[in-house]
Amino acid sequence: MTCQPNRYPEPAQQHCEDDPHIDPDGYRVGRGKPPKYTQFKPGQSGNPGGKRKNEESCHDLLKEEMDRLIAIRENGKTITLSKRKAFVKAVVNGAIQGNPSDEKILLRFIKSDEKPRKNGSLQIIKVDSEDEIPDC
Q: Distance between CA atoms of 65 and 69, rounded to whole angstroms?
């Protein structure tokens, strides 16, 4: 391997006042070192307008509200849970008590996971007690 001369030699150090690459204070201007008078002043932003904030969607606002914690009394004890859990608890308890609107809400959540019946057929099974109801 032969020793080749450097293709990009370093410029000779000049301490002349006429050199445009040297600031009067001895600050050397070059790549990544802009002249002092063009640099941002302390406290001045390079992007004064900044990035625009994304407007929150209705879904995001609802999620944030449903995740907030509330305190409720249950069996004489105060418990803390999210509004989402309190809503589910209220709907289930209302459906158990026979509230038709709560039953509709609960069935929508339960039935949304189920697949439709094959051929749209309805099957009626007679049973004597709840224990005899088969899993469909």
A: 9
For residue 28, how many C-alpha atoms fall within 13 Å in the half-sphere facing its CB? 8
Rounded CA-CA distance 87/124 in Å is: 33
Percent helix, strand, coil in the chain (nearest 5)?
A: 30, 10, 55
Do 2 and 8 meet the contact criterion of CB atoms below 8 Å apart? no
- Give residue-wise pLDDT tens across range 16-72: 455 556 666 677 888 888 888 888 888 887 787 888 888 888 999 999 999 999 999
Within a 10 A sphere around the Cβ of 77, how many other Cβ atoms?
A: 7
CB-CB contact of 102 with 91 (8 Å): yes
Determine if the pTM surpasses 0.90: no
Element of type H or E holding 72: strand 69-74
DSSP symbols for 11-75 = PPP---TT-TTB-TTSPBPBTTB--GGGSPPTT--SSTT-PPPPPPPHHHHHHHHHTSEEEEEET
